[in-house]
Write a structure and sequence with these properties.
12 strands; membrane; transmembrane; 440 residues; transmembrane helix; AB_hydrolase_fold; alpha/beta; 10-stranded mixed sheet; Rossmann fold; two-stranded antiparallel sheet
Length: 440
């Protein structure tokens, strides 16, 4: 595996783009483009589950050897074999009558749905709430905030509960999880293709939209935080499109969105007023755009060798749109130089590590992602980015993810690197850890 380094990308600039944008283009072109991008990155699919260890959060980590985790993994393995065999068998159906083909497909889909009841049953209609215990009762109250989480692929009730509990421990706030049902890794990826090409809204998208909208309109709520993982990024992008259509701008100003391993092909966040490209391009020292966006804060966290990130956020975050199949993907992007797709084990444990008690996010130490330095990219590089200050030859994002970096930064002085801020200083989400609140 080649070496890569941490990077931070400003949100895309407000330049004119060629229409139609990705998600408004031809569904067949979108589907073909997604299939091509899928096969370009197909060798990274094992990194949805790899590395298998370590397990810093113990039983909260998805691959920690508890009986509940082992049973979930066993079900996923069975589903993977069955679904792959089913897809391989489909071309052979041309040899049989239509009635036999329909019966075969219906029987398999019904069997698959019954198996997936193991993952999808028992979720309360109002969402799965983080566990309240003696420790959480001692946290500072944040009654004026609403934290909502939408999960990604391959997540059943058990892993969703662990996800919201880990998020709750990280930020010392109650979190409500909206369940994006799983039908096995193969069918989940097929569903991602359909959602990205056809903007197909499943029931969990509609449920999450209603929950976010209610929170925005709820009296006394001053902040709504939406956290998305994996396929939840696709669904969250669609939810944002609906919110931008329906919700007044002053209410959208209390919404913040944070994604991990985002699989979306677009993320809309228009300016609230017409500005020149020059003013839109201006950045503050913390990387915030100076023109006011409809949603003030969007951040994406991506692992460089995560299949989902490479198929999603890393493939669509470019400074300039180059053809009609590309789209706006708004929000700052933080790229962690590692593999893995599981929210707790591969993202939160690496970016928001807990201390020995497992109840507080510890301060970053040398080698942690949040302790790594960042510096501004030069104009001759394609993305507008901040990256870790070493030999960065694999750190830039291209059309397919991680490509080469301009030679201009390889000879930068160490003195320049010493003056730049660390990742924890440009991450707004980091400021929420342990019950903290970012400066407005």
């Amino acid at each position: 595996m080649p070496t890569t380094y941490p990077s931070f990308h400003h949100s895309q600039e407000g330049e004119e783009t060629e229409l139609p944008l990705t998600y408004t283009g031809s569904p067949w072109q979108l589907f073909a483009s997604d299939v091509r991008l899928f096969f370009v990155n197909i060798l990274y699919i094992p990194f949805i589950f790899l590395p298998l260890h370590p397990w810093p959060s113990g039983p909260l980590d998805e691959l920690y050897p508890t009986w509940a985790n082992i049973i979930d993994i066993a079900f996923h393995c069975v589903l993977f074999v069955l679904q792959l065999s089913f897809l391989i068998s489909l071309p052979l159906l041309v040899l049989y009558p239509v009635s036999i083909c329909l019966l075969y497909v219906a029987a398999f889909l019904m069997t698959n749905a019954v198996i997936c009841l193991h993952f999808n049953r028992g979720i309360p209609p109002d969402g799965l709430k983080s566990t309240a215990d003696a420790y959480s009762q001692q946290w500072e109250s944040h009654d004026d905030e609403a934290w909502i989480f939408l999960n990604g692929i391959c997540v059943g009730k058990h892993w969703l509960q662990n996800n919201v509990d880990r998020l709750s421990r990280t930020f010392h706030r109650p979190v409500v999880g909206v369940h994006n049902k799983t039908y096995g890794v193969v069918f989940d990826l097929v569903q991602c293709l359909i959602q990205r090409a056809l903007l197909y809204a499943t029931s969990d998208i509609r449920d999450c939209y209603v929950k976010v909208k209610k929170a925005l309109y709820q009296p006394g709520v001053k902040k709504v935080v939406l956290i998305l993982h994996s396929q939840g990024g696709i669904e969250g992008g669609m939810i944002l499109d609906w919110l931008l259509d329906e919700v007044p701008q002053d209410l959208l100003q209390i919404l913040e969105v944070y994604t991990f391993g985002c699989l979306a092909n677009h993320f809309s966040n228009p300016s609230r007023s017409i500005t020149s490209p020059e003013s839109a391009a201006k950045q503050s020292s913390a990387g915030e755009a100076t023109d006011q966006r409809a949603i003030p804060h969007i951040e994406h966290y991506a692992n460089a060798y995560d299949f989902a990130s490479r198929w999603g956020v890393l493939a669509f975050t470019k400074k300039k749109v180059q053809d009609h199949l590309e789209s706006r993907f708004m929000g700052k992007v933080f790229v962690n130089p590692r593999a893995g797709h599981q929210l707790n084990q591969h993202y939160l444990d690496s970016i928001f590590p807990l201390d020995l008690t497992g109840r507080f996010t510890r301060e970053p130490v040398e080698g942690d992602f949040m302790d790594m330095k960042s510096c501004a990219e030069t104009d001759d590089c394609t993305p507008d980015m901040i990256h870790g200050g070493w030999d960065t030859k694999d750190a830039v994002l291209g059309g397919q993810g991680i490509d080469g970096l301009s030679n201009s930064l390889r000879n930068s002085d160490e003195e320049d690197f010493g003056k730049v801020e660390k990742m924890c200083h440009v991450s707004r989400l980091w400021q929420y850890r342990n019950g903290g609140c970012p400066k407005s």
